[in-house]
């Protein structure tokens, strides 16, 4: 009977602690500035282009232009 009583008291403490953490998170969340999270999609597309070593600037521009035309042709 003593072991059950101890485990029940520990579970009550765990739920109480969970409630305190949730309440603290809610209060902390209200104080954070909302500028860190964008409210809507800004329309940016990030692409990583990796060409062979010593690729010329002209080749890099050509590949970037090709990627840009593919992205602009997409309706999404």
Topology:
Elements: H1 2-31, H2 57-73
The chain-level mean pLDDT equals 84
Determine the structural class based on helices, strands and strand pairing: mainly alpha
Number of strands: 0
Radius of gyration: 27 Å
Strand content: under 5%
- Give the uncertain stretches in residue-range form: none
Distance between the termini: 64 Å
Secondary-structure element series: HH
What does this protein structure show overall?
This protein is mainly alpha-helical and 76 residues long. It has one domain (2-73). Helices cover 62% and strands 0% of the residues. The protein is built from two helices and no strands. The longest helix is centred in the first third of the chain and has 30 residues, at 2-31. It starts with a helix and ends with a helix.
